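Structure (tokenized):
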């Protein structure tokens, strides 16, 4: 009750004694001390008084730097292990909830199994996650899209305001609601009762005065009936005069039915010897006390009933006026709804930025001069990567969507061109003519652009190649607009990111390291009005048996997305649709374990988009994804 700072060192009268702080000051003033006394929050101890604190004054424990309640830092016991280095869901959840607010952006540069993205999605955080492995991305996408997430009550919603009003006992605000996630959720809260909140609570005085008008007359009746002068703190909790200690101990033994009967009979004999009257087990009183006069018993019972009622009312006023602490990991859930992840919002397609050649050469020279790198390291690195690509091409060829559509090379050797890195031959069909293919090998870490394809295609035409196959990890958006240069076919073969793990993978010839996923066959349904629509007919693919372009139907399309206002930097999924000859509706119902609105699903399972406004950028982008996860994008001017 004392501190090194004022407000004062005045004497305090408590339970018939006077206390003063010896060297310090009381933590509150005279009014505050009076309210602490009335609230039964003081306790005498020798020559000073203490402040009484209850466990439910603050029934929460702040989290410190030692998280002993998280069992495993690597993998959660509640989540099945689907990835070799899967992180603990509880660990990631604590970090995100502690460090971010709803609507904040969480970045995970190493996706893995998608734990960070899944937790961020659950807690209403925006997220970006990435990885170089198709396995990791597929696992993360499946985990995100098939999960069920709780529907937390938004603070900026009618339901959330109604819940908040019920918790605070105040009428809800009548201002408009917008469902703004950044306003947060409606959280559970706990009171945080402090000495200051009690000392500054004027309701305690009002409640005290009201109940004193009831308690004081009853105390007077009790003192008169018992011929006592008890103060309030001296009134015993139980009525009746207590027996002596020996009789009280024998009383406990006699009433204990689990003891041997001989012990209980001996205890009755001790009571009769000490007190005089004899008792049986049936006539033994419940409490070891002599009864009070009837008037005293009645006044005592009424006084304690009023005393308890006063304390409950004071405690309620303390809890109502106390500060609250929000439990940000316990928002209220609307169990009548379930939430699922929508389509991924942003997928970056920006080309990788590289230094100009002159700066690269300067850096190489400086590092070579300092002995940190030889002058030929860069050339050797490119040569090693090109050799790996050629080896895989020679063993596996280039796969397309149909199983039979595979370009298998009869021969494949390096080619000393400026853009073309290899030359190969293959046969069209079983007995078809032999064709020569020029191989453009893209950078190990970078993107092939339209200008690269044009330069390589011109070199291939001059060398009289029949087909140009560009192999790269990624192509920029405008490269999809170039499908041929004159009679030269241009195929864009996307390299599986697992190529970076070539040292760990065996060259078995059974993988899909190079996949050509053709151009989307799309119609723009433009009737001249303000709104337009898009219809996808299939995918145009190169037929190695005939050398022609063949159009497939929509059965090979798993999903297709539209960016209705493409900015040439990032692809924003503004429309998402699903196709395929399987039954994704049934699969989705199984994954979500709930019914789905058939009309709503019909707007998603379609080869024709919903109408949308003409883009301000005059460009739209359509991305098509097949069942293998391969994707291709095409940009249209509208």
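Design, position by position:
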């Amino acid at each position: 009750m004392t501190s090194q700072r004022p407000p004062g060192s005045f004497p305090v009268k408590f339970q018939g004694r006077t206390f003063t702080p010896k060297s310090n000051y009381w933590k509150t003033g005279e009014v505050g001390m009076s309210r602490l006394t009335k609230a039964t929050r003081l306790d005498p101890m020798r020559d000073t008084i203490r402040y009484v604190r209850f466990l439910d004054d603050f029934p929460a424990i702040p989290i410190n730097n030692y998280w002993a309640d998280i069992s495993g830092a690597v993998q959660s016991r509640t989540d099945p292990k689907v990835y070799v280095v899967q992180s603990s869901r509880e660990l990631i959840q604590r970090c995100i909830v502690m460090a971010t607010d709803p609507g904040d952006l969480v970045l995970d540069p190493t996706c893995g199994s998608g734990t960070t993205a899944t937790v961020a999605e659950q807690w209403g955080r925006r997220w970006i996650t990435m990885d170089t492995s198709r396995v990791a991305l597929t696992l993360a996408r499946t985990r995100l899209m098939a999960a069920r997430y709780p529907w937390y009550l938004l603070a900026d919603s009618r339901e959330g305001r109604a819940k908040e009003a019920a918790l605070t006992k105040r009428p809800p605000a009548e201002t408009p609601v917008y469902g703004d996630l950044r306003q947060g959720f409606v959280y559970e809260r706990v009171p945080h009762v402090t000495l200051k909140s009690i000392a500054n609570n004027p309701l305690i005085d009002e409640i005290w005065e009201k109940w004193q008008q009831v308690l004081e007359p009853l105390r007077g009746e009790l003192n008169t009936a018992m011929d006592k002068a008890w103060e309030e703190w001296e009134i015993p909790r139980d009525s009746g005069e207590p027996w002596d200690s020996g009789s009280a101990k024998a009383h406990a033994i006699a009433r204990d039915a689990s003891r041997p009967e001989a012990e209980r009979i001996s205890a009755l004999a001790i009571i009769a010897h000490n007190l005089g009257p004899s008792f049986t087990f049936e006539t033994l009183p419940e409490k070891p006390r002599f009864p009070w006069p009837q008037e005293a018993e009645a006044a005592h019972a009424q006084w304690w009933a009023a005393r308890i009622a006063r304390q409950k009312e004071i405690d309620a006023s303390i809890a109502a006026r106390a500060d609250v602490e929000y439990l940000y990991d316990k928002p209220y859930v609307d169990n009548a709804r379930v939430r699922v992840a929508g389509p991924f919002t942003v997928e970056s397609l920006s080309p990788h930025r590289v230094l100009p050649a002159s700066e690269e050469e300067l850096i190489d020279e400086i590092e070579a001069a300092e002995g940190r790198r030889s002058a030929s390291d860069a050339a050797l690195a490119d040569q090693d990567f090109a050799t790996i690509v050629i080896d895989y091409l020679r063993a596996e060829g280039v796969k397309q969507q149909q199983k039979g559509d595979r370009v298998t090379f009869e021969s494949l050797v390096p080619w000393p061109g400026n853009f073309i890195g290899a030359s190969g031959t293959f046969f069209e069909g079983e007995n078809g003519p032999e064709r020569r293919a020029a191989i453009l090998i893209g950078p190990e870490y970078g993107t092939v652009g339209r200008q690269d394809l044009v330069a390589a295609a011109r070199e291939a035409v001059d060398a009289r190649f029949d087909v140009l196959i560009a192999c790269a990890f990624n192509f920029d958006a405008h490269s999809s607009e170039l499908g041929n240069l004159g009679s030269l076919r241009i195929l864009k073969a996307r390299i599986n990111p697992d190529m970076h793990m070539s040292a760990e993978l065996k060259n078995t010839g059974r993988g899909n390291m190079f996949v050509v996923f053709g151009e989307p066959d799309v119609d723009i349904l433009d009737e001249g009005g303000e709104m337009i629509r898009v219809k996808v007919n299939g995918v145009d693919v190169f037929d190695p048996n005939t050398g022609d372009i063949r159009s497939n139907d929509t059965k090979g399309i798993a999903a297709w997305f539209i960016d209705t206002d493409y900015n040439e930097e990032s692809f924003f999924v503004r429309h998402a649709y699903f196709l395929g000859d399987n039954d994704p509706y049934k699969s989705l119902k199984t994954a979500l374990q709930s019914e789905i609105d058939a009309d709503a699903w019909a707007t998603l399972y379609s080869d024709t988009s919903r109408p949308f406004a003409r883009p301000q950028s005059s460009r739209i982008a359509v991305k098509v994804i097949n069942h293998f996860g391969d994707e291709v994008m095409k940009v249209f001017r509208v």
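Reviewer-requested clarification: The chain has a mean pLDDT of 83. DSSP finds 15 helices and 31 strands in the chain.
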